[in-house]
Amino acid sequence: FLFFFFFSRSSAKLVAPLGCLISRQKHTLPDLPYDYAALEPHINAEIMQLHHSKHHATYVNNLNVAEEKYKEALAKGDVTTQVSLQPALKFNGGGHINHTIFWTNLSPNGGGEPKGELMEAIKRDFGSFANFKEKLTAVSVGVQGSGWGWLGYNKEQGRLQIAACANQDPLQGTTGLIPLLGIDVWEHAYYLQYKNVRPDYLKAIWNVINWENVSSRYATSKK
């Protein structure tokens, strides 16, 4: 079987099957909920501007191109081309999904620790917030090459899990975990400021984590 899902314009979630490709709207680059300089000194404005307006925009543009080619191949019954387009759809679609989550996971008013149900779940599944932070940092540092560190929700088991994904592989599409918090460890996310010292970037990013957003995602994932 060949399965393909497209991404909704507003939330970049995997939502609909093949047939909807015919009438769907093109994906667009979401606006940031803050200025490029808002996360300084932890992530500088130049990084945010390039990351959002260049890198994320490229994923969006390439996803639209790949989907258009897929639609044409689908209309022709060209299964070979449909199969050959899967890597581009996964990479650019994942890049769009991941970054759309990432921007909302960050906030100039972030940092500190979560509260309420999310904090209780973290203590239940990791022992303490400190243990969770250490584990997610270690997994993110340990990503070989480019990729992401994630806090996800395992709906079947009813628990939080930490995972790493290579390149732009989307968490839910490749592991089944519902994404709550993603940390981008591609070099374009930090190199201009932190050079090749990924641990320094990961230490800094905890100061801008938007726990309200992560908590909201957790509440939604349990429904």
From TrEMBL:
Enzyme class, spelled out: oxidoreductase
UniProt-recorded name of the protein: Superoxide dismutase
Gene3D superfamilies: Fe,Mn superoxide dismutase (SOD) domain, Iron/manganese superoxide dismutase, C-terminal domain
Function: Destroys radicals which are normally produced within the cells and which are toxic to biological systems.
Domain Manganese/iron superoxide dismutase N-terminal: 26-107
Keyword flag Hydrolase: no
GO molecular function: manganese ion binding; superoxide dismutase activity
Superkingdom classification of source: Eukaryota
InterPro entries the UniProt entry points to: Fe/Mn_Superoxide_Dismutase (IPR050265), Mn/Fe_SOD (IPR001189), Mn/Fe_SOD_BS (IPR019833), Mn/Fe_SOD_C (IPR019832), Mn/Fe_SOD_N (IPR019831), Mn/Fe_SOD_N_sf (IPR036324), SOD_C_sf (IPR036314)
EC number: 1.15.1.1
Designated gene of the protein: Sod2
Cofactor(s) needed by this chain: Mn(2+)
Reaction catalysed by this enzyme: 2 superoxide + 2 H(+) = H2O2 + O2
Sequence ranges assigned to domain Manganese/iron superoxide dismutase C-terminal in this UniProt record: 114-217
Keyword Hydrolase: no
Main location: mitochondrion
Amino acids binding Mn(2+): 51, 99, 184, 188
GO CC list: mitochondrial matrix
Keywords from the named record: Manganese, Metal-binding, Mitochondrion, Nitration, Oxidoreductase
PANTHER family, sorted: SUPEROXIDE DISMUTASE 2, SUPEROXIDE DISMUTASE [MN], MITOCHONDRIAL
PROSITE patterns: SOD_MN
UniProt subunit comment: Homotetramer.
Subcellular location(s) of the protein: Mitochondrion matrix
Family as reported in the entry's similarity comment: Belongs to the iron/manganese superoxide dismutase family.
